[in-house]
Write a structure and sequence with these properties.
Low-confidence stretches: none
Mean pLDDT: 90
Keywords: Heme, Iron, Metal-binding, Oxidoreductase
Strand content: 5-15%
Cofactor: heme
Protein name: Cytochrome P450 monooxygenase
Oligomer: single chain
CATH architecture: Orthogonal Bundle
Structural class: alpha+beta
CATH class: Mainly Alpha
CATH topology: Cytochrome p450
Shape: globular
GO molecular function: heme binding; iron ion binding; monooxygenase activity; oxidoreductase activity, acting on paired donors, with incorporation or reduction of molecular oxygen
Pfam family, one: p450
Largest sheet: 5 strands, mixed
Length: 444
Amino acid sequence: YRDTFFKVRQPYGDVLILPIKYVDELKALPRTMLSFDAAVDERFLGEYTLFSHSFSGLHPNTVPRSLNYNLTRSLNGLMKDIHEETERAFQDVIGSCEGKFYEWFKWTEVNMWQKLFPIISIISGRMFIGKELCHNPEYLRCIVEFTSESFQAKAALFKWRPWLRPLVYKFLPEVQKLFKTYETMMKIMASVVPARLAAIEAGDPSEDMATWNIMNSPSGKSSVKIQAHTQLILSKAAIYSTTLTGSHILYELAARPEYLGPLRDEVDSVMSTDTVPWLSKTSIPKLKLLDSFCKESQRMNPLGATSFTRKALQDIVLHDGVTIPAGTHLTCSLIGTLRDPEIYPNPDVFDGYRHLNLRSQSLEQESRHQFVSPSLDDMNFGYGPNACPGRFFVNNVLKVVVTYVLQHYDLKMPEKKIMPGNIIMPNIFGPDMSQTFVLRTRRG
């Protein structure tokens, strides 16, 4: 169905799958005609699951502006913080994987999904709320649990007819658990918000999302209720997807030992010329093989089956006369594009050098085939004005985490095990969360 429209039935209604050729035309339309936020609100029942900005009165531009304008521009100065939290998180969560007796005993079996989630949460928390609170157990529990609790609440609500949901949602255990997490976050932010406001007033604002979200909120929108909501929205947008993507990358590394040597050589070469003892923002773009490996892992293991999710708020007439009626939910097939042999030769074969080779063809291809570059051939990070605003932060965190693993651990799949298959949930592809690989601390 590459060049045709078709529909897929979903719990919230039919979704129109449209050909990629229309995306450039649609991305230029204003939000009053075609809305990402409206689609997400209905898809995730945002008014009950806290996915909706309107739940707390959070302005929809606040978090994207903080990510695009503040966090991305501040990444160079924050790389030391990311490195420090990565090192501490790995030591706290995984520690040394070094045995003392026989060769086989030196390896430690690790469920990377279970380990990577708290690691990514701690690193992200440093950027979200600062050094003082990013290790707070209650704060970490909130940002770790929020996404899964939201999904559970959504699933529970979809069992009820739409007209009954406003009547029953407060009595559902899944929703009650979710709102308890929100109440905990409000208690945490009750001390954070006044302190951040005072620091801003004194001309000494801290460099974290808690401060930037307050600064980027319209007048009267810096309440504890709203700022607690922003922290949870951030965790949903950043931590869950980063952990999924990072788990896939590390499983691919464990299953493909032939890449470990070349990747380590690249990391050693780049870091030997850096002026600081950590991976700086200017060094990360030089890790071209690692970038290619990460992009190929994401091509083979996308976060979902579709991308460019929108809802038509008005009738839309396309250039060829096709009309999309108001109220239509629409999206594009991501997996179809990523496995299209006309775009990616041998699409079912993992090739860690694929995007590195494509980048070498021309200056245009150099920028088109980077991990963070959205294109019609790869919409893993979305496309157009709603492309993921935090993708540069995600890129830097993942590169620091993967280089840390390469430098400090040997890794491989357990004996007689192969690369684990993905678990397919409604529009979400995730690693088999029960699967493991083995680590040992590198020597020498």
